[in-house]
Write a structure and sequence with these properties.
The protein has helices at about 5-15, 25-35, 55-60, 75-90; strands spanning about 40-45, 65-70. Strands 1-2 form a two-stranded parallel sheet. Helices cover about 40% and strands about 10% of the residues. It is α+β, with helices and mostly antiparallel strands and about 100 residues long.
């Protein structure tokens, strides 16, 4: 099942919630993003731009994506810098429309 990784990650996060806490978007996000304290602005996806990683579905909702068509062991600092430069050149609208 290609989605098992993302489903398992979500299930693991739900188990980390305190039983006394209310289950809402903020409490689920807190355990999913752990150890980060917020959703990512940039997700670097390794591999071809025709496949999204199922384990990152939650993070992909509002993140900017940069595709780097290399394997993990081939990723260099230059690839990461190019992804950051690409991200920095974008005009983020956070779901808004151009006026």
């Amino acid at each position: 099942d290609p989605y098992a990784d993302g489903r398992q990650r979500f299930a693991d996060a739900m188990r980390r919630l305190d039983a006394d806490d209310e289950v809402n978007e903020a409490s689920v996000a807190a355990v999913l993003y752990e150890p980060a304290d917020c959703e990512p602005d940039l997700v670097v996806v390794l591999g071809p731009p025709t496949q999204l990683p199922p384990s990152l579905v939650w993070e992909l909702a509002y993140a900017e994506l940069v595709f780097v068509d290399v394997a993990w062991d081939e990723l260099t600092p230059d690839h990461v810098q190019a992804a950051i430069d690409d991200f920095a050149s974008r005009r983020r609208r956070f779901g808004g429309l151009d006026e």
